[in-house]
Amino acid sequence: MVNPWLALESGADPVAHTRRVRRAHEAFLADGTVLPPVRRVVADSWRRSARARAASDGAAPIELDEAALRAYRDAHPLARAMPVFRELLGSIAQDGAHLIAVCDPQGRMLWVEGHPGVRRQAERMNFVVGARWDERHAGTNAPGTALASGHAVQIFAAEHYNRQVQRWTCAAAPLHDPRTGRLLGAVDITGGDHLAGPHSLALVRATARAAEAHLAYGTRESGSFLAALGRDEALLTVDGTRLRLGRRHSEIMVLLAHHPAGLTGEQLAVLLYGEREVSPVTLRAELSRLRQLAGPLLASRPYRLTRPTDTDLTAAETELAAGRLTAALDAYPGPLLPLSEAPGIRRLRTALEDRLRRALLTARDPALLRRWAGTPWGEHDLEVWEALEDTLPPHSPAREVPRATAGRLRTAYGLTGSSSAHSSAHDPRRPPGL
């Protein structure tokens, strides 16, 4: 069976393959048609890049200057894994043909290392520290596509969405917090066509696993933790064992973790079902199935968790309450159980999102506003785009994107010449129909 994450089948001619993929790339840019031999993972990435209006020519944007990068990088969890990356990938990075790179969940390059000559070549396309290489800003590329797909992947030559990157081949794997499962970033190796073989994909995947094991070493093995931000299905970790929960069980666990004193069946039903008529038997059946999964962690009369359970929701709230806004955004990979319609979950989700937005708008930090606006949950946030435009110098070219985006969103809202601040009848985060 062909590995869909591998760029070239064994024995394939890289020159001929590059020629065919380049023709397919030009056809896609012309009319959106995807032709053979483009892999599905690449086709999906091209479509995401096109929807995000990623440039098919040009350099990736630089978002972190030297001072901001140094402080952010030193505090990043992946800083502890750099010895692993250097030990396992450093030798090939110094052979004069490769680079190793590590990025954060937003695709911002935190480390780019390798032979100085290769680094100088990569600088022409802004493959440098501080630059943003997620698909939205740089198009299809190994670290960006690994972040988007959640899987180790190779991107070969003309498979890159941006023509400036098509002379390179790269392989990358996502990295996760071993305790919470939260996405931490990706590790990448970049070089020439010789990276298209299966060895580079296997190597980068093994390096990612080794780094995660290194991060897990010495961390607390006892205790329980619930990760539910940015997930439709929560991840429960109990004494080092990870368990993915179904959607209803995810809702129940979040609510019980948020109410450590416990909830009666009636209280829990209201938070889960609201005014809907639901038989008590239905809730008892859900709790019985959950108890089979969670074991002694779940107790009844009232329904409660038998030991303190930390959550990523609480972690983000704690950072926000302490005024550590950058750390709060780091701890916020997305809305709480975003597909949940349970009233109790919706209240928690909206409360955290509103507090984060208000803190961002009050702080008026362009980097943080840009970071929020660059997310799927913030890209339609008119008020944030307007604030970002206002915080930038009047004649700065950087104002062009927020100005244009705010204009498009005002049109989508049906507003003409007015700002969202004067339009309280509209939700400034989401145009009608979205």
Automatic annotation (TrEMBL):
Which InterPro entries does the entry link to?
Answer: GAF, GAF-like_dom_sf
Could you tell me where the Basic and acidic residues compositional bias lies? 424-434
Q: Where is this region: Disordered?
A: 414-434
Instruction: Describe the location of the GAF domain by residue ranges.
Output: 118-214
The protein's matches in Gene3D superfamilies, at most eight in alphabetical order, are given as: 3.30.450.40
From what superkingdom does this record's organism come? Bacteria
User: Which protein are we looking at?
Assistant: Diguanylate cyclase
State the organism named in the record. Answer: Streptomyces gilvosporeus
